[in-house]
Design goal:
This protein has about 450 residues and is of the alpha/beta class. The chain has 19 helices and 14 strands.
Length: about 450
């Protein structure tokens, strides 16, 4: 049963960012080995960590296309949903890109400064394929890179057995061990189909921390990239942390979380469903609800139990709800907004009727990855097909950053253009001479003095 607590019972530790690392040393060894040994290390780690270890890693374009065509034929509803998600994500990301202006302005006579927004050349996307192969993550990571204008997008995802090799097994022409250690590169078919739909340039059957290292440093097969994005388990997160600096990364993400602020108009069934939607991700996921009515809190708790009884992912969801879930009783929704700002959740829902109070609470909230306003703006829409990106900051990181966006694939650089004998240039150079000498950097001062 979910815990129902008064807001005064919350400890300071509850608001602290949750740390799920502790694998840095092991991952550092993986990263260093891949950097040194390239593809040989990837094969060795594939045999150690994966059930399938292909002889090569690049999945053929024909296999990607075949996966998309198979999905379109056998599951047209899913195929259309992926296309819809891609279309909306591209629209939103393109509008984000349009918000970055290139400009040049004259600060002083003859002194022109400006900025340019330039996409990175190569981007690497990691898509996990554990209990839940995240086909939607392909859309969320590739679409902003496409909108940014990245020249080459590569994708790494854990390997799966190729149908040809599976057929050999069933025909008795090779045993499972031989096939698993020497078959053709292949991956989850949903992820492959999504990669083809979204226009990924190259898709590699390589997973885990070793895939992150490969994209950071490059191997004989997998090219080095400029930016690595995408979610993953704690080993993937630790690997991204380890390679940051060699490449850019989106963020170090932990288990998912939602914080819901509800008024008297909120439906207990909807609230319970939204909380369970987060809880089923992971036993460490965190679902939180804040409201003013204890009776409504009890109804939501009862509804959670009812829905858990029929939920296919109940084992995971229940563990999450009982370990990390909370229903918090607050004296006012303003206090709830204060708690949310202190918690800085990945997702913040305002399950409130349209009106002045909802507008006020939305204005008070400022620490969140994404904000979902109103009863019909379910967080799950943002997960899949509303244009928003579902790769968002967790564990309090929303205090200082937003989620994955087109910005992750863009560099905002600055320019300076100075005209001969212009008064603004003379003014700048004179100031540079004085500042250089004051700092004891006399070559700096001389370089500016020569322009006077």
């Amino acid at each position: 049963m979910i815990q129902i607590v008064d807001y005064t019972e919350l400890s300071e530790d509850w608001f602290s960012g949750r740390d799920f690392t502790g694998t840095d040393e092991a991952v550092r060894e993986i990263v260093d080995t891949v950097k040194r040994d390239g593809d040989a290390a990837l094969r060795a780690y594939g045999k150690k960590f994966d059930t399938v270890s292909p002889h090569s890693f690049l999945i053929s374009r024909d296999d990607l296309k075949a996966a998309a065509e198979k999905m379109q034929k056998e599951n047209p509803e899913l195929y259309d949903a992926l296309c819809c998600s891609k279309e909306l994500a591209l629209k939103f990301a393109q509008r984000q890109k349009d918000s970055f202006d290139d400009f040049e302005m004259e600060l002083e006579p003859g002194l022109f400064t400006g900025q340019k927004t330039i996409p990175v050349e190569k981007a690497g996307v990691y898509v996990p394929a554990g209990r839940f192969p995240l086909v939607s993550t392909v859309v969320m990571t590739v679409s902003p890179a496409k909108a940014a204008g990245v020249k080459e997008i590569i994708l790494c995802t854990p390997p799966r057995i190729h149908p040809d090799d599976a057929a050999k097994n069933s025909a008795g022409k090779a045993d499972a061990k031989e096939t698993s250690e020497g078959g053709k590169p292949y991956a989850d078919e949903g992820i492959m189909a999504a990669a083809y739909i979204c226009g990924v340039d190259k898709c590699f059957a390589c997973g885990g921390a070793q895939a992150v290292a490969a994209m950071a440093f490059g191997t004989e097969t997998i090219p080095a990239v400029d930016v690595i994005v995408g979610p993953g388990n704690k080993f993937v997160a630790a690997a991204k942390k380890a390679v940051y600096g060699k490449v850019g990364i989106d963020m170090i993400a932990g288990p998912t979380e939602v914080f819901i602020i509800a008024d008297g108009s909120a439906d207990a069934k909807w609230l319970a469903a939204d909380m369970l939607a987060q809880a089923e991700h992971d036993t460490e996921a965190q679902s939180v609800l804040a409201l003013t009515d204890k009776k409504r809190a009890d109804r939501v708790a009862d509804e959670i139990e009812k829905q858990l009884a029929a939920l296919k992912t109940a084992q995971t969801a229940r563990a999450s709800i009982e370990k990390h879930g909370r229903i918090i009783i607050v004296p006012s929704l303003e206090i709830a907004a204060e708690l949310a700002n202190k918690k800085a959740p990945e997702h913040l829902e305002l399950a409130m009727a349209d009106g002045q109070e909802r507008t006020k609470i939305a204005a008070l909230a400022h620490n969140y990855g994404s904000l979902f306003i109103g009863h019909y703006s379910a967080e799950v829409l943002g997960d899949y097909a509303a244009g928003l990106n579902h790769t968002l900051p967790t564990s309090g990181a929303a205090r200082y950053t937003g989620g994955l966006s087109v910005r992750a694939f863009l560099k905002t650089v600055t320019t300076l253009r100075a005209e001969k004998n212009a008064s603004g240039v003379q003014k700048s150079a004179s100031a540079a001479v004085s500042l250089g000498e004051a700092e004891g950097l006399y070559a700096h001062a001389q370089a500016a003095r020569l322009r006077l």
